[in-house]
Design a protein that fits this description.
alpha/beta, Rossmann fold, two-stranded parallel ribbon, 3 helices, globular
């Protein structure tokens, strides 16, 4: 994968240690806020590392096939970032409105935000550890 950085944005580099801490923090809040979750689905590609880590921390089954809410109920959808909101918008049009969405980052200007986020950012370009 070739990552083209935006030269007009400051770069925020997330390390694996920062990722682990974000996941631990998110998992504690998820346990309280969404106690009935049975499955976790990571939006390809950026949501997959988060989904795997949270599935271990929360002892949830990981959905690896296409998300079908007629088959799976009590699903948590995760992604690395809500940047413009386009990806989440596409997902939300296909879900029931009761399925929570969690992201590590959310840009202040996103048109559609998740139900839970670890950190809201302004204009930083995020470099995730799996992109290095």
């Amino acid at each position: 994968m070739i990552m083209v950085e935006n030269p007009n944005r400051p770069i925020k580099k997330m390390t694996w240690e920062m990722f682990d801490q974000a996941c631990k923090t998110l998992s504690e809040v998820i346990k309280v806020k969404f106690p009935n979750i049975k499955y976790i689905y990571g939006v390809p590609r950026g949501g997959l590392p988060l989904a795997v880590k949270l599935s271990h921390l929360l002892d949830l089954k990981l959905i690896t096939e296409e998300l079908d809410l007629d088959v799976f109920d009590n699903v948590l959808i995760v992604d690395d970032i809500s940047d413009s909101g386009t990806t989440l918008s596409d997902i939300i049009t296909n879900i029931d409105g009761k399925t929570p969405i969690v992201c590590i980052f959310k840009r202040e200007t996103t048109e559609l935000g998740p139900d839970l986020v670890f950190e809201t950012i302004k204009d930083e370009w995020i470099q995730f550890p799996w992109e290095v």
